[in-house]
Amino acid sequence: MGTQDIIRWGVDLTLVAMLLAALRRQTGLVLAYERYDFTRALQMYLQWGEYCWNRFVGYARGDGRRFRKERVEDALRQRIEEL
Question: One Gene Ontology cellular component annotation (predicted)?
């Protein structure tokens, strides 16, 4: 296993942790990690996802050139295009 593989696995695991953080925030659903023997490691992993998610959202909110709030017109335009 080379350096590139380790980096790729790290990025992939971070993205999954961020996805779990977003799922928790949007739906309130959490991973039932209490059932596993490595509870502490899973807690730390989920905290890493929360940290990365917070950083990403902060970046998106601060970067007005690439991100903006969705407007009512956006949803209306999408529905019209679907017809």
Answer: cytoplasm
